[in-house]
Automatic annotation (TrEMBL):
<keyword id="KW-0418">Kinase</keyword>
<dbReference type="InterPro" id="IPR011009">
    <property type="entry name" value="Kinase-like_dom_sf"/>
</dbReference>
<dbReference type="InterPro" id="IPR035014">
    <property type="entry name" value="STKc_cGK"/>
</dbReference>
<dbReference type="InterPro" id="IPR000719">
    <property type="entry name" value="Prot_kinase_dom"/>
</dbReference>
<feature type="binding site">
    <location>
        <position position="308"/>
    </location>
    <ligand>
        <name>ATP</name>
    </ligand>
</feature>
<dbReference type="InterPro" id="IPR018490">
    <property type="entry name" value="cNMP-bd_dom_sf"/>
</dbReference>
<dbReference type="GO" id="GO:0004691">
    <property type="term" value="F:cAMP-dependent protein kinase activity"/>
</dbReference>
<feature type="domain" description="Cyclic nucleotide-binding">
    <location>
        <begin position="95"/>
        <end position="196"/>
    </location>
</feature>
<feature type="domain" description="Protein kinase">
    <location>
        <begin position="275"/>
        <end position="558"/>
    </location>
</feature>
<dbReference type="InterPro" id="IPR008271">
    <property type="entry name" value="Ser/Thr_kinase_AS"/>
</dbReference>
<dbReference type="InterPro" id="IPR018488">
    <property type="entry name" value="cNMP-bd_CS"/>
</dbReference>
<feature type="domain" description="Cyclic nucleotide-binding">
    <location>
        <begin position="1"/>
        <end position="73"/>
    </location>
</feature>
<dbReference type="InterPro" id="IPR014710">
    <property type="entry name" value="RmlC-like_jellyroll"/>
</dbReference>
<keyword id="KW-0140">cGMP</keyword>
<dbReference type="Pfam" id="PF00069">
    <property type="entry name" value="Pkinase"/>
</dbReference>
<keyword id="KW-0142">cGMP-binding</keyword>
<dbReference type="GO" id="GO:0005952">
    <property type="term" value="C:cAMP-dependent protein kinase complex"/>
</dbReference>
Length: 624
């Protein structure tokens, strides 16, 4: 059966499996699955209405058919119509359909219909909790929460027919409502249950009801509403993976894959993917990154390989990176396409950036010029170190603004901005990478972990205060200063030997009397932009005030910048030219890195099947 098509029959599943799909905001979302002994299409037996959902068999199935005429003649007249419709409705609500029959009968008797006109507030954040629970009959409701910093309401969920709301505050014994729930463009009709009924009949199912609103399930729902498909388990083969002594091996395992990254026709399921491993691109002590080529279509990716033994004592960063990068999809960010593991390594497949990082680019751009300066009351030319010109810097900052705007809208805090984490392709386009310190942060929630690079951390992190998304905007202020001046704003000191002491750097960051010094060649607009980001009071910090990222885009430093062109993906920055000296140094560094990685891989391969460390690492990463 197809949604919105006429229907006049009920189907009882004798043997089979069916997906029940509903069109929500333009995407077909699987809302429930039906199997043996269950029914579909029951609403058509009561009313002559179009089908409310599409039902598709996921395998060969057998059903019994009961037409509307037969049902009316044999069944309908034996029960009161309203009670019957309520019971049929509850059969379609997954968390209620499993309740005992007597409990459902009691709920049906207690349900009161209520309708809210379009764009009406059903409950408001901060209102007294009246204990009512609502189950949606028709329409769409929008769930939002107020951002305490900007004052903006952030949409955190969408609710449709068979969804419910209002249960959390009652089951958790809260005095006030935690969220605002409003009807959307059409009226919302609900069944309403009062506090006494909710507590008396649903307390035994309270955990199941609360679990339906878990962050994981809400994130999955929001992804589906955006048209994103669920990740799939497929067989993946890595051909020619480098090993010690010039040997190469093939690795075949099961990978978790984003189907949209590999399917030409997204309706066609992928089952197998093959990659050829090529040259090393970079890395560190814990792992390396190789270029890989898809055998099917020749597409290029970057494959990050991490030694389990290098990270199993502190696995949180690698799990955070895997979770966050699998959820994001934006051209300003390094997005993940697949993840898998073998006995000794963890793997994540990312976009390929074929240039360098922003720090490499800054190093090649640094120059010294004679700049007129006031020295003891006299203007004299002073040799002054300079970074990038402001036009180039403006592009990289703008891309980071888009990245943070997207991340924060999806409740992700980044926490580790620095030039080394901004990757630049040879075509000049940049992406933000390395999400090891990123995490999901609820609206109004604060983080407490000290993390980041000392010169870039915000005052609230240094002072061990709870912090939110504003720390990312502070770091953007530091980065903007760095790429324009090639110096750190909080490491300027008359004593050069002390300027890199992280403790003294952080003391300057929190010192209200310490003033950042701006070079004379920096424009007034750039200095003002940086100073508004480097507000020690996060409530006054640009990006964290009302208007959010929009206020940054409107700043005079971006006065002539074409944000519309950038956001369309058609902005063409300057191409990157890497010097022969840089390339030679890079080749030497990569040769040393590759040697170290091969030696580590050889050491891991000599560990037996019962090695204690390998066994422990396998347990830590069993769910990777």
């Amino acid at each position: 059966m197809e949604e919105n098509e006429p229907g006049d029959a009920l189907y009882l599943i004798e043997d089979g499996d069916f997906d029940v799909l509903k069109n929500r905001l333009g995407s077909d979302v699987c809302v429930v699955r039906r199997g043996n002994g269950q029914i579909v299409g029951e609403l058509a037996l009561l009313y002559s209405v179009p089908r409310t959902a599409t039902v598709r068999a996921s395998r060969r199935s057998t059903v019994w058919v009961c037409t509307q005429d037969v049902f009316k003649r044999e069944v309908k007249n034996s029960v009161e119509e309203t009670t019957l419709s309520k019971n049929i409705f509850m059969e379609q609500v997954p968390v209620l359909s499993t309740l005992p029959l007597e409990t459902r009968k009691h709920l049906a008797d207690a349900m009161e219909p209520v309708t809210f006109q379009p764009f009406t507030s059903i409950m408001s954040e901060g209102d007294a909790n009246d204990g009512k629970l609502y189950i949606i009959l028709s329409g769409r409701a929008v769930v939002s929460k107020r951002d305490p910093n900007t004052g903006d309401n952030r949409t955190v969920n969408h609710l449709f027919r068979h969804d419910f709301f209002g249960e959390m505050e009652t089951f958790r014994d809260l005095d006030t409502r935690e969220f605002t729930v409003s009807s959307a463009e059409k009226a919302v009709s609900c069944y309403c249950l009062n506090r006494e009924v909710v507590l008396a009949t649903l307390s035994s199912a309270s955990q199941k009801l609360l679990d339906e609103k878990s962050q994981e399930k809400i994130r999955d729902r929001m992804r589906q509403l955006k048209g994103e498909k669920s990740w799939k388990d497929v067989e993946i083969t890595l051909l020619g993976s480098a090993r010690i002594g010039g040997k190469q091996v093939n690795i075949t395992t099961t990978a978790r894959v984003n189907p949209l990254s590999f399917s030409e026709n997204t309706d066609r399921e992928i089952s197998k993917i093959e990659f050829i491993e090529k040259e090393i691109l970079g890395g560190g002590t814990g792992g390396c990154v190789h270029k890989v080529i898809s055998r099917r279509d020749g597409r290029l990716f970057a494959l990050k390989r991490v030694r389990k033994l290098a990270v199993f004592d502190a696995p949180a960063h690698i799990f955070c990176e895997k979770e966050v990068t699998s959820e994001i999809s934006h051209f300003s960010l390094m997005c993940q396409h697949a993840s898998f593991q073998d006995r000794a390594h963890l793997y994540m497949l990312f976009d390929l950036m074929d240039g360098c990082d922003l720090m490499d680019l800054l190093s090649s751009a640094v120059k010294v010029k004679m700049i007129p300066s006031d020295v003891n009351g006299q203007v004299t030319n002073v040799p002054t170190q300079m970074g990038m010109d402001e036009d180039a810097a403006r592009y990289y900052c703008a891309m980071i603004v888009l990245a943070f705007e997207y991340l924060h809208a999806n409740q992700i805090i980044y926490r580790d901005l620095k030039p080394e984490n901004v990757l630049v392709g040879l075509n000049g386009r940049s992406k933000l990478g390395d999400f090891g310190y990123s995490r999901k942060l609820g609206v109004g929630e604060r983080a407490w972990t000290f993390c980041g690079t000392p010169g870039y951390v915000a005052p609230e992190i240094c002072l061990s205060k709870g912090y939110g998304f504003a720390v990312d905007w502070w770091a953007l202020g530091v980065l903007t200063y760095v790429i324009i001046t090639s110096r750190q704003p909080f490491t300027i000191s008359k004593d050069p030997s002390q300027k890199d002491d992280p403790i003294k750097v952080m003391r300057r960051i929190v010192d209200m009397t310490y003033k950042v010094q701006y070079p004379t060649y920096a424009s007034d607009e750039a200095c003002d932009f940086i100073s508004q980001l480097l507000q020690r009071n996060d409530m006054n910090r640009l990006g964290n005030v009302q208007g959010g990222a929009r206020r940054i885009k409107e700043h005079p430093w971006f006065g002539k910048f074409d944000w519309e062109l950038l956001e369309s993906g058609d902005y063409e920055p300057r191409a990157v030219t890497l010097s022969s000296q840089f390339m030679q140094l890079q080749r030497e560094r990569l040769r040393a890195l590759e040697h170290d990685q091969l030696v580590a891989t050889e050491m891991d391969s000599t560990r037996g099947p019962h090695d204690a460390s390998m066994t422990r690492a396998a347990e830590v990463f069993k769910d990777f």
